[in-house]
Amino acid sequence: MVEIELTKRQQRIIEIVKELEPITSEQIASMLSVTRSTLRPDLAILTMSGMLDARPKVGYFFSGKTDINLFSQEMKSIRVSDIMSVPVIVSEETSVYDVIVSLFLEDVGTIFVASKGFLVGVVSRKDLLKATLGGNDINKVPVAMIMTRSPNIVTTIKDDNALTAAVKIIDHEVDSLPVVERIIKDGKECLKAIGKVSKSNITKLLVELCRGGA
Ligand code: ADP
Fold first, then answer.
1. Which CATH number is 28's domain given?
2. How many structural domains compose the chain?
3. Which residues pair with 60 in a beta bridge?
4. Which of 84, 168, 174 to probe ligand 1 with, by most ligand atoms within 8 A of CB?
5. Do residues 98 and 139 share a domain?
6. Comparing C-alpha atoms, which of 90, 97, 94, 98 is closest to residue 122?
7. Probe residue for ligand 1, chosen from 92, 124, 149, 197 as the CB with the greatest number of ligand atoms within 8 Å
């Protein structure tokens, strides 16, 4: 999900059109003291996104639709705690074989790894597949050997908004994020995994928002 933020000039164009519709691009350009060709990309964005209607020989109308803004606002108003699911967590000495079994039994794509109750790693489908290709006995290889470990884990917290979590998933090219609580133990910061936000949670949210149910 890409957040679409209107530029100052695009916002100004909307205000002008709202007030003076129908209005031609020449008139808008002269009000903003720019050329028509400077305005062309802005007007294209605003008409393509449905915020402005362009009628040939008449000019621009405000469509009344600001769906994109509303949508991104709605995504931002929803907390990670509203969409997260229960994480599947194994201990770091669990064998790769047993983690693969859990993956099937729990029907998930990513499993979190904890040591003494604190998050130390993340293991994905591809990590597990790779481990099976190595020729080692996967009954004997502990998951700690193949996981992506802290501090390289990309996390979120329950008060982050849904858009922030979705952007992290896309930017870091991962399928899911542990939802963590930071706890200071013996002067060291430790992470407790209290949930999981995956591409599925985000997709479900998008469907609910589009159906008007969220
Ligand atoms: P898949 O392996 O099914 O493509 P991912 O795209 O989630 O799943 O995982 C790709 C790699 O990123 C794996 O090596 C995995 O350990 C790692 N990974 C997965 N989730 C995270 C995360 N939240 N933070 C850091 N690394 C992650």
1. 1.10.10.10
2. 2
3. 23, 54
4. 174
5. yes
6. 90
7. 124
Atom of ligand 1 nearest to the CA of 122: 16
Domain hosting residue 62, numbered range: 8-70
Which residues sit with their C-beta closer than 6 Å to ligand 1?
A: 109-110, 122-127, 148, 152-154, 173-177
Domain shared by 53 and 159, yes or no: no
> Do 115 and 150 sit in the same domain of this protein?
yes
Which DSSP letter does residue 140 get? T
At 42 the pLDDT is 93
Q: What is the pLDDT of residues 178-202, one digit of tens each?
A: 999 999 988 999 999 999 999 999 9
Residue with tokens 């100052």: 8
Q: Which residue type does 206 have?
A: L
pLDDT tens readout for residues 32-90: 999 999 999 999 989 888 889 999 889 999 987 665 566 777 888 899 999 999 999 99
Instruction: Examine the domain organization and report whether 66 and 90 are in the same domain.
Output: no
**Can you tell me the distance from the alpha carbon of 46 to that of 36, in angstroms, rounded to the nearest whole number?**
15
Same domain as 176, residue 130: yes
pTM for the full predicted model:
0.73
